[in-house]
Amino acid sequence: MKETIKRCRASQDSLLNKKETEKKAYAAAVYLRLSKEDGDVCGESCKGESNSITNQKRLIHDFLKDREDIHVYKEYVDDGYTGSDFLRPSFQEMIKDMEAGKVNLIIVKDLSRFGREYIEAGRYLQKVFPAAGVRFIAVTDHYDSLTADRTEKNIVIPVKNFVNDAYSADLSVKIRSHLESKRGNGEYTGAYVSYGFMKDESDHNKLIADPVAGENVKRIFQWKLDGMSNSRIAEKLNALGIPAPADYKRSLGIHYKSGFQKNLYSRWSPVAVGRILSNPLCKGLVVQGKKERINHKIKKMVVKPEAEQSRYRQEDLALIGEKQFDTMQGLLKKDTRTNPGQEGTYLFSGILYCPDCGRQMIRRKTSHKGKQTIFYICKTYNVEKSCTRHSIKEQELLPLVREAVRAQMQMLADAEEILKAAEDAMEGIEPFSLTDSRLPELEKELVENVEMLSGLYVDWAEGILSEEEYEEMKAFYSGRCKELEGQIRKRREREAKAGDAVREARQWLCGFKDIGSLLPDTEGEIRRSLICSLIDKIWVYEGKRVEFSFLYQDRMAEVYSLCGMFQEALQEKPLYGKGAV
After folding, report:
1. Cα(53)–Cα(79) distance, rounded to whole angstroms?
2. Per-residue confidence (pLDDT) for residue 137, from 0 to 100
3. Residue 9 domain-assigned?
4. 169 pLDDT band (50/70/90 cuts)?
5. Kindly report the CA angle at 506 between 505 and 510, in degrees rounded to 5?
6. What is the DSSP letter of 512?
7. Are 351 and 334 in contact (CB under 8 A)?
8. Are 274 and 282 spatial neighbours (Cβ–Cβ below 8 Å)?
9. Is residue 554 part of a domain?
């Protein structure tokens, strides 16, 4: 009897507490969220009606219409933010207001609007909110933490959160696959475009060169080749009043935000100039998918291997020739620092090297009786005295450089002449095969080695060779036969594709025509842009002997080899040999 009375009293107390709770006034935080993946990408016309911010707001206010104990303190809106994490600005603001005691009720349309990360969502619903005495309502899920029983809290809600998380993971995979497919088809998927380029108005997945910014990109490359430092280029752009990339984008009506900009109006900087000079898009190479998120829950980006990146050429995008761009990349790696206030880089900065210690030469200037002399010495010798001087005057170096450059350009001209004659000879002959004079020799040598290999077994069987000698000679002749077969196969392939090889080589050589216009007269001034376009390094030996290492030497050797195959048939004069000056 006593136990029954206790249960009745407990039940009455519970009802009283419930009535008091229901009468409690609530300051509500209305939380609204919509991510781009949910469909809010192209305006009201294409997004799902039930997912729009407007309709979330309308549904919640309809729910609160007859609830006099609840008044809305504030609406918190995260428009365009994923639900896979809780690092959203308005959500964080709401949590701060909750911790400050400004709100004691959080209401959302459904659990997916609150968040799709089931572990963190469960932590808020089962630990954070109860500990803070905050009520939570998800309208369309019919969940209210005030009236929910243990089954709803411990089973139903975790399962719904898990389903929302799984949906987010599945959506992430589908979006990633869709973007990779578009990139594979040569479509551009980036939100913004690098300076110098723009999206085609008729097709936003296609890039075109920006007629205004593109000209500025060409200027920047030319100034750099002429010897100007990145800092000086940035100063010149600012002095000319050319808008920096961020400001230029905004002037076109693009809602652009950059993590690099700190002030209201941006200015050109050496870093911004460097980014343009190293952007492969300038030579028409579109590179996408360089980074990816580890998964949909972690925002950290990791660099993908180059083989997994999307790379394709769009020739009409090229603002800079490929050779000029590649030359620039080598130039950016060189030590070309300048003194404060200096207009540009010195003529041979980052070009002269000591062959003994491998370090760069440094520039020195002396004055005697009003006459200035510029010379270069080994940096190691200058600092540590542990190498020799390798000294050479600039006036002694200039004629040697002029002669080497002219010889190199003559070699290129001769090669182009031979290839043009070869292309003319091949015209109208399909399929064209080139006779390789070395092939008969290799084929004869292969036959001899096969015969030797075949006779080894007989010699071993007759006791002429021991088993050890037989195995050793068998391995040698077998290896030699494979090597000869490989050489013959490659030469035959080159014979069959001679026409393509000649056309590719001529096209490659055409890239040097612009360099020819930079050649000086016999006593004319040598420009730094000419040196940077042809020469990789100049090695200065003791006794004022210099040796030149030219850019593209391996590719040039292939072209010369191809020319050699045509020389006898076309009765052209031999090419000049490569050598040091």
Report:
1. 8
2. 92
3. yes
4. low
5. 120
6. T
7. yes
8. no
9. yes
**What 3-state DSSP class applies to 78?**
strand
- Spatial strand order of the sheet with 143-144 comes to 70-79, 26-34, 105-108, 135-138, 143-144
Residues 6+ away with beta carbon under 8 Å from 544: 392, 396
* pLDDT classification of 412: cutoffs 50, 70, 90: confident
Token reading at 517: 């216009």
Backbone angles phi, psi at 299, to 5 degrees: -80, -15
- Pairing mode, strands 26-34 and 70-79: parallel
What 8-state DSSP symbol labels residue 306? G
Q: How many Å apart are CA 440 and CA 287, to the nearest integer? A: 45
Scanning the structure block, which residue is given the tokens 């080695």?
Answer: 449
CA distances from 104 to 133, 301, 322 (A): 7, 37, 63
322 and 223 in one domain? yes
CATH number at residue 226: 3.90.1750
Query: Residues of 296-328 as b/e, b for ≥16 C-beta within 10 angstroms?
Result: bbeeeeeeeeeeeebeeebeebbbbbbbbbbbb
Same domain, 283 and 426: no
Rounded to 5°, the CA angle 514-519-524 comes to 150
Of 332, 353, 371, the domain-final residue: 332
Backbone angles phi, psi at 374, to 5 degrees: -105, 130
Dist. CA 419–CA 560, nearest whole Å:
10
Global confidence as pTM: 0.51
The conformational region for residue 370 under phi > 0 = left, psi -120 to 50 = alpha, else beta, is: left
CA distances from 471 to 461, 480, 511 (A): 13, 14, 53
* Rounded CA separation 453/445 (Å): 12
Full residue range of the structural domain in which residue 64 is found: 2-175
